[in-house]
Amino acid sequence: MQQAFLYPASGRLRLVTFLAAILCVQPAQALGKVESRVQLRDLDSSVMEKTVPVSVLTPEGVDVKKQSLPLVIQLHGGGSSRNELFGYEGWLGEMFGAGILEPLVVVMFSTDAFSGFLGDWEKFIIDELPVWMAQEYNTRTDREGTVITGISMGGFGSLKSAFRTPERFLAVGALEAAIEPTLTSLPARTRNSWNSMDPNFLLPEDKPTRIAHDNAEAIRASGLEIYLEVGDEDFINLHDGNEYLHRILWDHDIRHEYHLVRWADHTGASLQPRYKEMMAFLGKALAGGRHDPVELPITREEQAILERTTERMQAGERPTKEYADYMGGPRGPTLNAHFWNPLRELADDPDMQRAYATMPPTSFEAYKAFREQQAKEKEETDSDRPGTGM
């Protein structure tokens, strides 16, 4: 079921195809008791100078007045409203019940149908809404307890706010975010602007791609946890913009998780499992993220395991189950680092200091020029070192 909507003639005239998320992420038959509930509230906003309709999802059986829980700010898709949150109630309850998500509070609010969460909406999201939620639901206001997420237009808005103020959010998750593959603007009636009668209605400085580019250092330094995903058959070609943002983050060495989902469109049955994956990521971020860090040096027991394994491999025998189990456990990355570090430390490449490599072009001619330039720069660097110059 799809519908087409137009932005009003005030400069936001835009034709978009969408499925209201309350329809496209309806839960499957619940496996047990639904462990969450949704309340409808009104927030008298001084920022927006009007009453903002709000919905709040809380986990069943948790007294939020006695336990301060993390806050998830959920931005709805284009043409939708706060009622979208009712579509999440069942499967979020299942995630609570299964222990995939620790207890948290989700808030959603209604904006104009295609607000883009622009202008004062961003100030409302960053400054006013978290304070109101803390007052009404005792939610956390610290960065480590606040995440933001959204679908389509909501994905756009969540990335925009998180990239602009990464010091305010621990994590951001964007499901098929409505973003374009540009740092400026696009000409009309192209692959990524055909659904827009005014491709220039967005200022470049409001585009998540541009904000990520311009604010890369602050985003990288903040440690903002970022989750991007989009279907590779998105009917309005949002996979192009999301792929472009992924490449910007990669090139600027900003850690993130990115999923290009095969066979997935902008609507349909794929959305609920995709939404669950994103929420699981945000839950892990709130729980501290990585659970198996590299912590050298290794222990004597671990050294003995490696020595026994080396002897077996040199004799042409397979590693023991003991070794396989250890490598698959929380200390596996530490043993792996211990094994490879002697070679890694011999590497003479500035890219070793990056999280992600500086990637070569994919066309062969450009690739050859890239490698030649790399070799020239390395030669110049080597000649500048003491004892190597003429």
What order do the helices and strands come in, and which of them pair?
Layout (H helix, E strand, L loop, with lengths): L2 E4 L8 E4 L2 H4 L11 E10 L4 E10 L11 E5 L13 H9 L7 E5 L10 H18 L8 E6 L1 H12 L6 E5 L32 H7 L1 H7 L2 E7 L6 H14 L5 E5 L9 H16 L13 H15 L6 H7 L4 H13 L19 H20 L7
Parallel strand pairs: 5-6, 5-7, 7-8, 8-9, 9-10
Antiparallel strand pairs: 1-2, 3-4, 4-6
Helix pairs in contact: 5-7
Structure commentary:
The chain has 390 residues and is an alpha/beta fold. The protein has a single domain, classed as Alpha/Beta hydrolase fold, catalytic domain (Rossmann fold), CATH 3.40.50. The protein has twelve helices and ten strands. The chain has helices at residues 21-24, 89-97, 120-137, 153-164, 208-214, 216-222, 238-251, 271-286, 300-314, 321-327, 332-344, 364-383; strands spanning 3-6, 15-18, 36-45, 50-59, 71-75, 105-109, 146-151, 171-175, 225-231, 257-261. The protein has an eight-stranded mixed β-sheet, with helices on both faces. Strands 1-2 form a two-stranded antiparallel ribbon. α5 runs parallel beside α7. The relative contact order is 0.10.
Q: What shape does the CA trace take?
A: globular
- According to DSSP, the number of beta strands is 10
Unreliably modeled segments: 1-34
- N-to-C series of helices and strands: EEHEEEHEHEHEHHEHEHHHHH
Helix-residue proportion: 25-40%
Classify the secondary structure makeup into a structural class: alpha/beta
**Hey, roughly how much beta strand do the residues contain?**
15-25%
CATH superfamily: Alpha/Beta hydrolase fold, catalytic domain
Q: Report the major sheet.
A: 8 strands, mixed
CATH topology: Rossmann fold
